[in-house]
Amino acid sequence: MNMPLVCVPHRGAAGGASPARQVLLAFALVLVLGSLTGDYPRYVLTLWMLYSLSAIGLNVVLGFGKIYSLGHGGFMLLGAYGTAVGLSRWGLPVPVALVASAVLATAVGVVVGLPALRLKHFSLAIVTFAFGITLFQLVKSTAYTGGPQGLFLEVAGLQALWQGRVLFYVAALLCLAGLALSYSVMVSRTGRALRMIAANETVARSFGIRVTFHKLAAFALAALLGALSGGLHALVTGVVAPETFGPDLSILIFAAVMIGGQGRLLGPLLGAAFVVAIPELTQDARALAQIIYAVLFLVIVTLSPSGLVGMIEAAWRRARGNPPPAGVHVGNATGEEGA
Amino acid sequence: MNLDLALSTAVAGIVSGAYYSLLGLAIALIYRTTAVANFAQGELGTFSTFLLVLYVARLQLSPVLQVLLSILIAAGISALVYRVLLRAQRGGDALNLTVRTLALYTLVHAVTLYLWGAHEPYTARGLFSAGGFDVAGFQLAYDQLGTLVIAAGLGLVLFVLFRFTRVGLAMRSVAMNAEVASLLGIDVHRIALVVWLIAGAIGALVAMLIAPISFLGTDLMQPYILKAFTAAVLGGLTSFPGVVLGGLLLGLIESFGSTWISIHLREPFTFAILLMVLLFRPAGLFGKQHLGRV
User: Fold this and answer.
1) Is residue B165 part of a domain?
2) What ipTM did this prediction achieve?
């Protein structure tokens, strides 16, 4: 399909030469690192991988399609609670519970998305945020899902398997698969359609793009990846509690995508690294930790609208003495809108 | 349900609806003029209420002056936020600007928690005397009445401002189309600054009304801000009276919903109503559908 005029030029994540190979190399490094370190660093790396997975899903919706989804924590909740209920109430095997809950979350994503995606911008953000809060309140007030205490999972054996390496590998591989999926969406017709919908829905429609279908597909994909991430989170921590999957989680993942660089392939990984690493690194600062996190968050999103990826690219260009390529604008400089 | 219960449920609904309306108005104002969903609105209100209770209240001023001074401070902070956070560093799209306010929300919350979190909750002195009086057999508390009077008065002031003053006219034109307004010689950024001032003042006033009836904690405004967003969307962001009606409606629905059904299902119930309304009217109850031109 040819799209002149509005088609956004696509840049490789690392500014040119074969991003796939570099990403694979980086992942191999992470795998080796995760295998060699102690239990606790491995646990943190596992968290990084599964938050990345969730953020990769949200990036497809938020970054590519500019669809304001602020209820991503709700899908993680569905994955986590689905897995927990499947394991502890129905006695399902772990993979079955994980997959079943991901399927359930995808279905919920479609059912909620169908009416919700008629909305745009602000209204959509509020509806999706309310969706996340509603799920949070429901599991908190239902005895079957453990009420305010949540549910404990009998997965100590799985967690201890090969000193946590098994869950780490599963998380890393799922994250890599999510990244590959997001890359294929990015460079395919679907990705172009999404970016065009983001630029102007009316134009997209007039080009014969099925707007509702593409938005819904992106939303469902995000729900799927979010639920897988949530299910893994339940397995890794061995407990699901409502507070873990409350509105703050939706904001955290949203922040991760924005901090990393929305619409950029590697943005979610960097953003997830930020939201996982900063609290870990500032543990000694205790009460100040949250303020440090918030200040960094504020400074990054204010100074660099394309997030950490944008900052790194700018630094890279400066180091090589190259000016930014003229005339190339990645599709997030559309100026003010909605007024 | 007998009449007494129905009446008191209705009054409670209208009072919380008034909070939602005012906050929703502040949010809609900012959204329409600067295309930003200001997530930090509630937290800035909480922050200035803490300033009032812990610092301004120590000054030798009458309570009304103390409140007014705190509202002024809050308006100043809000304008400063616009100037430093949004205006000084351009280059982001609407999403990026909104995320900046989300980051600001995180920061203000962290600071409030750091400074005052250890000793919460505080008690804020009420702006009105305790007690109430009988109206046709049921109790109307003074603070409920006072809230309604203040909310109605503020609504009237805003109405007069929008309808009959030059700056109000400029605000409406910027809200309608910022580009055309600037072509017509309106200083859009100055208008935006005024809007942030007003929104900051409204946010602080609402927080100061809420603080005495609940305990003053660091999460004072969190339940209200989400409802205010909902009210704004429910009423339709394009119409300011629509936002006010949306807020009142939301308050009533919530109040009757929690009396009839269950207080635990209040949020899911509200969400269901919101989704239903938007399913049939995507632009909100009183909003106009924006037709895009290519």
Assistant:
1) yes
2) 0.89
Nearest CB partner across the interface for B282, out of A118, A201, A302: A118
* Containing structural domain, residue A203: 37-243
Q: Is residue A329 part of a domain?
A: no
Range of the domain at B148: 3-224
The pLDDT confidence band at residue A325, using thresholds 50, 70 and 90, is low
> pLDDT digit string (tens) for A191-205?
999 999 999 999 999
Which is more confidently placed, B294 or B148?
B148
Residue A22 lies in a domain: no
Query: Does residue A173 sit within a domain?
Result: yes
Q: Which residues of B touch A255 (CB under 8 A)?
A: 99, 102-103, 106
Q: Do A288 and B103 touch (CB under 8 A)?
A: no
CB contact (8 A) between residue A298 and residue B106: yes
Q: How many domains does chain B have?
A: 1
Q: Return the pLDDT at B5.
A: 82
Query: For residues A23 and A102, which has the higher predicted lDDT (pLDDT)?
Result: A102
Q: pTM for the whole thing?
A: 0.88
In-domain check, residue A311: no
pLDDT in tens, B121-149: 888 877 777 777 777 667 788 888 888 99
Percent of chain A at pLDDT exceeding 70: 89
Number of domains in chain A: 1
Q: How close is the nearest chain A Cα to the Cα of B51, in Å? A: 19
3-state secondary structure chain B: CCHHHHHHHHHHHHHHHHHHHHHHHHHHHHHHHHCCCCCCHHHHHHHHHHHHHHCHHHCCCCHHHHHHHHHHHHHHHHHHHHHHHHHCCCCCCHHHHHHHHHHHHHHHHHHHHHHHHHHCCECCCCCCCCCEEEECCEEEEHHHHHHHHHHHHHHHHHHHHHHHCHHHHHHHHHHHCHHHHHHCCCCHHHHHHHHHHHHHHHHHHHHHHHHHHCCECCCCCHHHHHHHHHHHHHHCCCCHHHHHHHHHHHHHHHHHHHHHCCHHHHHHHHHHHHHHHHHHCCCCCCCCCCCCCC
